[in-house]
Amino acid sequence: MYFIKLSVVLLGLVCLVALGYPAGILADARDEQEQKYQSLLKKLKASPEHYNQLLKNHESFQALPQEKQKTLKDLDNAIHQLMKSYDSFQASGKEKQGALKKSEGSVAKSDAQEAGRLLEVFQKFGEWYEALSQTEKDRLGKAAHPDGRIAEIRDIMTNQWMMRLPKVDLDGLMKLDEKARSVQIVKMKKEEQIRVAQSFDKKRKAGLYSEEALKFITQIKQQLSSEQLEKVSKLEGKKTAYTKIILDLAEDNPPLPLNKLGAKYLVMKDLPTEVSAQLKSLKQLGVYKQIEITKIEKRWPAFARGVTEIIRKSDPSFNYEFGACKFNDLPEDIRTVVENELIQLLQDDEKVKLQAVEGKWPDYPLMIRDLARVHLVTIPGISIPPELLQLKPGKGPMILR
């Protein structure tokens, strides 16, 4: 979201690099912005891969026509303003939030709600777009008008929906001419929405979670800090708020299967000697602070993921199998669903993406989660159960197709 702002910052960084840091510049510098550039440059160079990619992004942006650059800058600024509005609302405190919610005509409330809605749309669209084949991405890129792009998006989503249908239903649709097929698709989607809504209503009236949902909630609660657990406990009995916080926590730190040894890495003493040595060296260099480790200790998989992210700041190739990251190492129930359901739905480029990260942790299980989300497959122990998605706060159930 800060692509444009990073490009502007990088322009300053490139100038500093080109100057080669003549003697006296840093000592005599009084300009606050230059100091910020120097600080940011130091942080970026700690991850050469990330730094080089940002430079390439900057060059690509500068190569665009001025009109396109202005369009991107305007979009970036609009997104930034929405994020400021949403962050301000989130940080305003419970009393002020409550006052805004009671004021139906409140502009602040409207802005905050719109910001939250759009940010969620951006995130979901980004996940959906990244999972598209290159051919589908090219189709969207060639659409010259927003209405044309929306039409292409709808067409691609319809094709994805059809590919998820049972074979007998798909064969029946393919036998129809284009006009009759369009009519039948609309009818089938409406019937599907009714079924989902009826299922949602039954579960809401029952007031109980299914065994699958309860198991998932238990997994999430087991990996929370004491502070997070206290927050969750206070919301028990308030189903809407309780479901929302579980979904938020699952998104930030999803449960991941253990490695083939069944080991859980929770504190520093659990780490292999070579990993501990890398962490110690990076701490001495100021890459991270001890508090970053302390706040995630005794939590799986948060601790192992945090350690991996810290080391990858300076060594992007770092990999340690803290958890299952190869197909054969996955639990049997996960392997069964991945092999018999998910793989069958993947496009060729999606299969390539999955193969490229096999053996990398947590990249591999997270890629399985993301691809399963796109194709509406529920991976046991990783995916959020559909029931919880349907109970997501809002005016009605989340329609999955």
Task: Write a concise keyword list for the protein shown above.
mainly alpha, disordered C terminus, 401 residues, 21 helices
Task: Describe the protein.
- By secondary structure, the chain is mainly α.
- Among the domains are: 3-83, no CATH class; 134-206, no CATH class; 327-380.
- It has helices at residues 3-19, 25-28, 32-45, 48-62, 66-90, 94-102, 107-130, 134-142, 146-163, 167-174, 178-206, 211-222, 226-235, 239-252, 273-284, 290-294, 302-312, 332-345, 348-357, 363-374, 386-390.
- The model is unreliable at 1-30, 104-109 and 393-401 (pLDDT under 50).
**Coarse morphology:** globular
The count of β-strands is 0
Low-confidence blocks of residues: 1-30, 104-109, 393-401
Helix/strand structural class: mainly alpha
Radius of gyration, CA atoms, in whole angstroms: 24 Å
Give average pLDDT, whole number. 77
* Helical content class: 55-70%
Number of helices: 21
Main beta sheet: none
H/E element order: HHHHHHHHHHHHHHHHHHHHH
Give the end-to-end Cα distance, rounded to a whole number of Å: 27 Å
How much of the sequence lies in strands comes to under 5%
Brief account:
By secondary structure, the chain is mostly helical.
How are the SSEs placed, and which strands pair?
Layout: H1 3-19, H2 25-28, H3 32-45, H4 48-62, H5 66-90, H6 94-102, H7 107-130, H8 134-142, H9 146-163, H10 167-174, H11 178-206, H12 211-222, H13 226-235, H14 239-252, H15 273-284, H16 290-294, H17 302-312, H18 332-345, H19 348-357, H20 363-374, H21 386-390
